[in-house]
């Protein structure tokens, strides 16, 4: 399948939003108080950021703390970009110490809330910059005592508690590279990532709370470590006090590690291009890719995108001895995803705005959990995913009406295309028609927002992520790299480097070049299809390769297929996405069984559960259909578009003449999920 054709294949989703013409300009009142106040200001700044990237980014970088200023802003040797070359800084210093240096040590850095415990009350913790520096420094010294050195890869597998933020910031403080694994992943995912990153240390917790139940994190780590012998040290934070086994010599309690550690730990001077973290994301084939992000450029870009996309304002003295209240920001993502890395911690803390972390589900104990949190903490900026918005819609507005959420000022969405219906509901019911919506398009690889409205400047349209951020030269092209005409679908590319772009795939240069730089000469290809309308607004049309985005999470169909085939009864499997009311895209699996094995519902359930065990619950197929064979072309390729039609219950429209055995189509349609 060529890339251009892939884009064309998504045109059915495109048609439904082509006739979307509702426009929502920001209100005068909002624009007046915003950092970027008009579309003219945005356009002038955008032009400058493209024409003179070096002066533009140097001015922004100057707003942050550097031990040593750079000699060169950008060194661009396609496809490798180095930013702030010769400069040294520390992102943890910029997240914490810079605020203390400015006299803000007693301001709140992190607000954390758990899900309600047995007594019906949540735990709430507020950490000031002073608190955070003390805790981060103690843990950083603890890590050093355990032998962790600059450049070592530290695996973190924790629930959404402040210690997760503390662990990642401690790594950054001493120059260790963190590799955070989402707490919903299972043992084999931990094993794969530990081995790929050659990580000798894992930081975890005994468990995490989810809907009143304990997620057995330490047990999962134990299981993973029976599959690999790389790991020498495990640090365990005591969260749930569930029964766990501590391995002698290998496992250490967090509280013991920090008990004798000093509260002072200088932030290590890091070269701008030193590796900050690795974060794994699924590819269309093969194992997950360890996306590499470095220090200086990532820091500057996430700082600026946070500031402008959410129009962040810190609490300031009002001149009369009081204070003008600044923002309280809440991103509902897990820190285990890039959204959490960039827009809960690294981009937010340098902006001096409290960032809220929540450990728990949106519907536990009741479906008004989020609105309750927003009301009590007076949240002003709220960032979530379309999949969550669709769930809120389904639950009904009575849950929102129980609360006063009028503190809200800007609403964000990320992770997948938001359908106009969900956008309008978000706008009316959550935003009370007064909050600008920022639909932010970006990727693990891009580090920060790429296409996004700026709330005081951009006129929004439901379903469009609108315009490029500063420094982003985005275009929609055909497979020859020529820009396509207005409203025509094509491949989304970025033509110039930006500060937070990925620096590589850990340990796999070939795959980096092949995945992002081989499709269109000289351009970064994101793997998404898009179109650009007559107003210069971008509309994302979905993935052009075989990654599917389920509930905002990027899953490789290959990974799910591999997990299916690892079940003893399964001979072959093909996985495709299909439209799903809540998740956006669901997973449909087509499975052939090993000869002689009977097709039963019980086996179906068993195979689905097997995938959940192998890869984690979000990868569990929503539908599974047995079939005597898979539809293949003569050259042996599975015809996925055919399966996509069948999974969606659509008529098969495409060409099937290259199909090896046409009778298989009928058989596939006869069988049920
Ligand atoms: C999709 C998440 C449409 C897209 C930050 C992208 C979106 C993939 C949007 C990256 C959006 C993300 N509109 N699609 N606003 N945001 N996507 O790496 O397909 O988990 O390539 O990063 O999600 O997913 P990732």
Automatic annotation (TrEMBL):
Mg(2+) binds at residues 565, 567, 570. Residues 559-637 form the AMP-binding enzyme C-terminal domain. ATP binds at residues 415-417, 439-444, 528, 543. Catalyzes the conversion of acetate into acetyl-CoA (AcCoA), an essential intermediate at the junction of anabolic and catabolic pathways. AcsA undergoes a two-step reaction. In the first half reaction, AcsA combines acetate with ATP to form acetyl-adenylate (AcAMP) intermediate. In the second half reaction, it can then transfer the acetyl group from AcAMP to the sulfhydryl group of CoA, forming the product AcCoA. InterPro entries: Ac_CoA_lig, ACAS_N, AMP-bd_C, AMP-bd_C_sf, AMP-binding_CS, AMP-dep_synth/lig_dom, ANL_N_sf. It is an enzyme of class 6 (ligase). Its EC number is 6.2.1.1. It comes from the Bacteria. HAMAP family: Ac_CoA_synth. GO terms for biological process: acetyl-CoA biosynthetic process from acetate. GO terms for molecular function: acetate-CoA ligase activity; AMP binding; ATP binding; metal ion binding. Its cofactor is Mg(2+). The keyword Nucleotide-binding applies. Residues 105-505 form the AMP-dependent synthetase/ligase domain. It comes from Poriferisphaera corsica. It catalyses: acetate + ATP + CoA = acetyl-CoA + AMP + diphosphate. The modification N6-acetyllysine is found at residue 637. CoA binds at residues 210-213, 339. Belongs to the ATP-dependent AMP-binding enzyme family. One of its GO terms (cellular component) is cytosol. Residues 42-95 form the Acetyl-coenzyme A synthetase N-terminal domain. The gene is acsA. SUPFAM superfamilies: Acetyl-CoA synthetase-like (SSF56801). Acetylated. Deacetylation by the SIR2-homolog deacetylase activates the enzyme. This is Acetyl-coenzyme A synthetase. Keywords: Acetylation, ATP-binding, Ligase, Magnesium, Metal-binding, Nucleotide-binding.
């Amino acid at each position: 399948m060529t890339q251009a054709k892939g884009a064309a294949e998504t045109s059915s989703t495109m048609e439904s939003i082509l006739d979307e013409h509702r426009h929502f300009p920001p209100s005068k009142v909002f624009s007046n108080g915003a950092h970027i106040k008009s579309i003219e200001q945005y356009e002038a700044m955008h032009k400058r950021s493209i024409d003179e990237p070096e002066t533009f980014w140097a001015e922004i970088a100057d707003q942050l703390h550097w031990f040593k200023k750079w000699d060169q802003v950008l060194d661009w040797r396609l496809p490798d970009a180095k930013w702030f070359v010769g400069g040294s800084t520390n992102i943890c210093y910029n997240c914490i110490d810079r605020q203390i240096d400015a006299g803000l040590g007693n301001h709140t850095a992190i607000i954390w809330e758990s899900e309600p415990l047995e007594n019906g009350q949540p735990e709430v913790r507020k950490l000031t910059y002073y608190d955070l520096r003390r805790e981060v420094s103690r843990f950083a010294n603890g890590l050093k005592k355990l032998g962790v050195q600059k450049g070592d890869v530290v695996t973190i597998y924790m629930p959404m508690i402040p210690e997760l933020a503390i662990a990642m910031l401690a790594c950054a403080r001493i120059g260790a590279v963190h590799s955070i694994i989402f707490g919903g992943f299972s043992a084999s995912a931990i094993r794969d990532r530990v081995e790929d990153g050659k990580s000798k240390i894992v930081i975890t917790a005994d468990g995490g709370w989810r809907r009143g139940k304990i997620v057995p994190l330490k047990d999962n780590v134990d299981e993973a470590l029976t599959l690999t012998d790389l790991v020498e040290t495990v640090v365990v934070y005591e969260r749930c006090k569930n029964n766990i086994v501590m391995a002698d010599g290998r496992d250490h309690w967090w509280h013991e590690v920090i008990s004798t550690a000093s509260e002072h730990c200088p932030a290590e001077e890091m070269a701008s291009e030193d590796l900050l973290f690795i974060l794994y994301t699924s590819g269309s084939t093969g194992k997950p890719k360890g996306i590499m992000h470095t220090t200086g450029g990532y820091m500057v870009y996430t700082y600026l995108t946070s500031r402008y996309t959410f129009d962040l304002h810190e609490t300031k003295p009002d001149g009369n001895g009081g204070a003008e209240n600044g923002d309280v920001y809440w991103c509902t993502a897990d820190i285990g995803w890039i959204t959490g890395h960039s827009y809960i911690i690294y981009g937010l803390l340098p902006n001096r705005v409290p960032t809220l972390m929540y450990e728990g589900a949106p519907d536990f104990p009741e479906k008004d959990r989020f609105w309750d949190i927003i009301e009590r903490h007076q949240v002003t900026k709220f960032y979530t995913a379309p999949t969550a918005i669709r769930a809120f819609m389904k639950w009904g507005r009575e849950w929102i009406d129980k609360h006063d959420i009028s503190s809200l000022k800007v609403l964000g969405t990320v992770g997948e295309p938001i359908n106009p219906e969900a956008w309008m509901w978000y706008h009316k019911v959550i935003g009370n028609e007064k909050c600008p919506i920022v639909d932010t398009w970006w990727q693990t690889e891009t580090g920060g927002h790429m296409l996004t409205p700026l709330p005081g400047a951009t006129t929004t349209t439901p379903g469009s992520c609108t315009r490029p951020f500063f420094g982003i030269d985005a275009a929609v092209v055909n497979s020859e790299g020529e820009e396509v005409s207005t409203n025509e679908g094509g491949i989304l590319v970025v033509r110039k480097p930006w500060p937070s772009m990925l620096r590589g795939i850990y340990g796999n240069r070939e795959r980096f070049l092949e995945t992002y730089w081989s499709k269109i000469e000289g351009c970064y290809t994101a793997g998404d299809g898009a179109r650009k309308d007559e107003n210069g607004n971008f509309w994302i049309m979905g993935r052009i390769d075989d990654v599917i985005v389920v509930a905002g999470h990027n899953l490789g169909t290959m990974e799910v297929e591999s997990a299916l085939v690892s079940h003893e009864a399964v001979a072959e499997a093909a996985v495709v996405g299909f439209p799903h009311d809540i998740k956006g895209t669901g997973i449909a699996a087509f499975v052939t069984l090993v000869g002689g094995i009977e097709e039963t519902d019980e086996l179906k359930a068993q195979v689905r559960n097997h995938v959940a065990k192998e890869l984690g619950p979000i990868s569990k197929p929503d539908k599974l259909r047995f079939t005597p064979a898979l539809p293949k072309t003569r050259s042996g390729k599975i015809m996925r578009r055919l399966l996509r039609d069948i999974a969606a219950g659509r008529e098969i429209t495409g060409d099937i003449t290259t199909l090896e055995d046409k009778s298989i189509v009928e058989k596939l349609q006869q069988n049920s999920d």
